[in-house]
Design a protein that fits this description.
This protein is of the alpha/beta class and 325 residues long. The chain has a domain at 7-160 and 191-215: Rossmann fold. It has helices spanning 16-26, 74-79, 81-101, 133-146, 166-176, 194-207, 223-234, 265-271, 280-289; strands at 7-11, 31-36, 45-47, 64-67, 105-111, 152-157, 160-161, 181-184, 188-189, 192-193, 211-215, 221-222, 241-244, 323-324. Helix 1 packs across helix 6 (194-207).
């Protein structure tokens, strides 16, 4: 790591990915400042709400910054596009402008949702073609950030696994009550370990590599495959995992693309980081679940939204004590 990477501001430091990146950088001797929307900021925190630029304090002088805060739930963006756009596009664009004006290199987290899901392994050079309101907002925010000049970068992410997935908790609850878990066999995710995200983000910041980067799981898994793997690891019999269709659930059609994977061409070429093996992220989470006496593992605290950590889907009516995914 170069000597120039000595102070980093993380906008959205309470988010799952922002928090993980902060700890990762601190463990490597980097001074980390974070923003929070909480009324009483802690040490090395600044109160800042992306929706209210007029209320921002003067930003600190840092040489690197990461934008890790956003409204990421597809339903929220769909139901209130004006309010979510004020944060995801306007707020992000303004804070990027101010940071670049203070000579900070800015890295902005984005998402595979800037594509329509019709093709697997989209490349960094592919033109965005979003079909969801969230995807359109993230595509616009990318343009806003990159327009600030060479001192900016985008890191698009697929489904990042931090402490776990809410749907896995629902399945375990159903099994614990003697029920079954119904899981979508036509909705996919490309699981990505948060440590890989932190490693790649740090390398981009350190090298001040501008432009677009991707981080992605190696291939798409269906939620049915994920439920089967979870059941196997927890000693649940296969007959307690039932395949169902997302078409029968109250889920926006654009929330269930056929493909979510991204090609990691630049990450591999420039930094030697390749997509993780298919089950790497999932098995790490499942190992953590099995590490406690009650079998529930550690629960993540409530976090600000950050790309790809809150795009879970709602439960539908669940007869036979079924947990639905």
């Amino acid at each position: 790591m170069s000597d120039t990477l000595h102070k980093v501001l993380i906008v959205g430091g309470d988010s799952a990915i922002g928090s993980a990146l902060g700890h990762y950088l601190e463990a490597r001797g980097v001074d980390v400042l974070t923003t929070t929307r909480r009324a009483n900021p802690g040490p090395n925190q600044i109160r800042l709400d992306l929706a209210d630029p007029a209320g921002w304090p003067e930003l600190p002088k840092v040489n690197r910054a990461v934008i890790a805060a956003a409204v990421t739930a597809l339903d929220d963006c769909h139901n209130d596009p004006a309010a979510s756009r004020a944060i995801n596009v306007d707020g992000v664009g303004e804070i990027a402008r101010q940071l670049v004006a203070r000579d900070a290199f800015v890295l902005h987290f984005s998402t595979n949702q800037v594509f329509d899901g019709s093709l697997a392994h989209r490349t960094e050079k592919d033109a965005p073609c979003p079909v969801s309101e969230y995807g359109r907002q993230k595509s616009d925010s990318e343009s806003q950030v990159l327009a600030k000049g060479d001192g900016t970068a985008i890191l698009r992410l697929t489904k990042v696994l931090t402490n776990g997935l809410p749907v896995i908790d629902r399945w375990r609850d159903a099994w614990g009550q003697g029920g079954v878990a119904e899981a979508f066999d036509d909705m996919t995710l490309a699981p990505l370990p948060v440590n890989l995200v932190c490693e790649l983000a740090t390398l981009i910041l350190d090298a001040q590599s501008s432009g677009i980067f991707h981080a992605s799981g190696g291939r798409d898994l269906t939620y049915f495959e994920l439920a089967q793997r979870t059941a196997e690891r927890l000693g649940v019999t296969p007959d307690r995992v039932i395949a169902t269709s997302v078409r029968n659930a109250p889920v926006l059609p654009e929330a269930a693309p056929i493909n979510t994977t991204l090609a990691m061409t630049r990450a591999t070429t420039e930094f030697g980081i390749s997509p993780p093996t298919t089950w790497a992220a999932v098995d790490a989470i499942l190992a953590n679940i099995g590490s406690t006496a009650d079998g529930r593992g550690s629960e993540p605290a409530h976090q600000e939204s950050t790309d790809e950590d809150s795009n879970d889907f709602p439960d539908q009516a669940a007869p036979r004590r079924a947990a639905v995914a």
